[in-house]
Design goal:
alpha/beta, single chain, 241 residues, Rossmann fold, 7 strands, 8 helices
Length: 241
């Protein structure tokens, strides 16, 4: 799940958009069937089962950081994938914009959407999660949609999202653990056509320092790491002071 580069960061933009385009191609072609299985109850390999379990746990964490009652609030699911988080937020009453540049994943999300969402509703969109046309939001969630980007590009994206967010941004990044660093190196040494673009391990202290410099008026309120086999991801909650 990918994003376009925000305006005002031209020195990062070309690299960012190249990575985004790789992700769009990957999720819309090579990995579409794999993601249908991974995000359903279908039987998967042991490795993918750990990824599924890790993603389920991370989704629970991010949703727990949002208000339980989301009625009369707007939530941006930035990089919504097949839509599980969007549906759960809508069931709690939110008006959700679920957006992803991978149209194939959004199509799956639409197919899976329950017929009844209570007080909530979902607007599914294919395109740039940073598009100002989406409007303003109370909360933004970006689960595993920034894990393929360098810290400077992550922060550039957060700056753009913060311009249209009134309360909190919760997102994940790939932590710089020895295991992830090794996997990243191996992926670069032995590329394979059906492998996803490399996950980029990012140092949390370094990322937090960059956020502090680029986003005055925001602070890191909570953080949580989830490790389930081959799934390792770090969550941060940014809130307005």
């Amino acid at each position: 799940m990918a994003t376009r580069a925000p305006s005002g960061f031209d020195h990062h933009g070309k690299r960012f958009e190249q990575q985004r385009d790789k992700l769009t191609t990957y999720f819309d072609s090579t990995a579409r069937k794999a993601w249908i299985d991974l995000t359903s109850d279908a039987k998967v390999s042991g490795i993918r089962a750990t990824v599924r379990a890790g993603r389920d746990s991370m989704r629970d964490v991010l949703l727990s950081w949002l208000p339980h009652d989301l009625r009369r609030t707007r939530v941006l699911d930035a990089g919504c994938g097949t839509g599980a988080l969007s549906v759960l937020a809508a069931r709690r009453g939110a008006e959700v914009v679920g957006v992803d540049v991978a149209g194939g994943l959004v199509a799956i999300a639409k197919e899976r959407q329950p017929s009844f969402l209570g007080h909530g509703r979902i607007h599914w969109r294919v395109g740039d999660m940073l598009d100002p046309a989406h409007g303003r939001f109370d909360h933004v969630v970006a689960m595993d949609s920034l894990i393929h980007y360098r810290p400077e590009d992550i922060v550039a994206t957060l700056v753009s999202l913060a311009e249209r967010c009134d309360h909190s941004i919760v997102f994940t990044h790939a932590p710089a653990t020895p295991m992830l660093r090794a996997m990243h190196t191996m992926g670069l040494l032995f590329p394979r056509s059906d492998r996803a673009p490399a996950i980029v391990p990012v140092s949390e202290p370094h990322l937090v320092r960059l956020i502090g410099a680029a986003l005055p008026g925001w602070r890191v309120a909570r953080r949580q790491r989830i490790g389930r086999g081959f799934y390792i991801s770090n969550a941060l909650e940014l809130v307005r002071d």
